[in-house]
Amino acid sequence: MILVTGGAGYIGSHVCKKLYEKGYEFIVLDNLSKGCKEFVRWSDLIIGDVGDENLLDKIFSKYKIEAVIHFAAFIGVEESVKDPRKYYENNFCKTLTLLKKMVEHRIKYFIFSSSVAVYGNPRYIPVDEETVQRVLTPC
Ligand SMILES: NC(=O)c1ccc[n+]([C@@H]2O[C@H](COP(=O)([O-])OP(=O)(O)OC[C@H]3O[C@@H](n4cnc5c(N)ncnc54)[C@H](O)[C@@H]3O)[C@@H](O)[C@H]2O)c1
Predict the structure, then answer these.
(1) I need a labelling partner for 36 at 20 to 30 A (CA). Which of 11, 13, 54, 129 fits?
(2) CB 35 less than 6 A from any atom of ligand 1
(3) What is the pTM of this model?
(4) How do the domains of the chain map onto residue ranges?
């Protein structure tokens, strides 16, 4: 069983569709701060926050989760510059909480949806594994 965080959002819901087509078993955890519950069409939806330690304990105890695919994040570039703390707390601190709970529950596999934005304005395109990361915004 896979846990898809942020599966009610844009990228997460498309990944869920693919997981379903490929026959994987999964559930979605999303607080619906941005996403849409109607986008969760291929699995159960747990409405809650990825930084909620008690909820993560319950999910990891109830379901036999083997892997987490992590899409739960805020993505507003402009807003992240105006309010970096909001992004630091949601995107960074809550990801650490998720990882801590995964370690506690011995869940080994974690797929993180990063962003091409980590490369800033790259010196060459297409970027490759050697490209230096030059983050321009807190997002
Ligand atoms: N949109 C793109 O083109 C793109 C490209 C590459 C990578 N990404 C990355 O993929 C991830 C998802 O992007 P998206 O475009 O699908 O965004 P989105 O806003 O459509 O989806 C994010 C989902 O996460 C949920 N969420 C946010 N914080 C949460 C929390 N604390 N707990 C539970 N749920 C929470 C929201 O409700 C939303 O449904 C981001 O990390 C983004 O940087 C996006």
Answers:
(1) 54
(2) yes
(3) 0.95
(4) 2-119
